[in-house]
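Continuing the series of single-chain predictions for the mutant panel. This is the parent chain; the variants come on the following pages.
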Amino acid sequence: MKITYKRQTGDKHGFSGTKIHNCWRDMRFRCNNKTWKKAHCYSGRGITICDEWDDFMVFYDWAMSHGYKEGLTLDRKDNNLGYNPENCRWITHKEQAFNQRVNRGVFDGRYHKVE
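Parent structure:
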């Protein structure tokens, strides 16, 4: 999938404001902003981003070759590990909703309530 966008003034890659760039920016915010009210869930737990993903275009190339499409969200397979190519994948919002601490169920293609 090749997506092209018109470059904005000061934009090095032409993707600012796109969903994939917002995903990358939000991931960096969660892990790098120690004053954020939910920092204890990310940087406070040691969740980091691999050095190579500091470069948006490296992240973009990984995303395009690993199933990114609009409507999917970035997920860490092991929530105790950071963001890196081996630990991340693209999943639906529904799958992501089952992957939260407040959830009392298991999602493996189907939802299973845990009592």
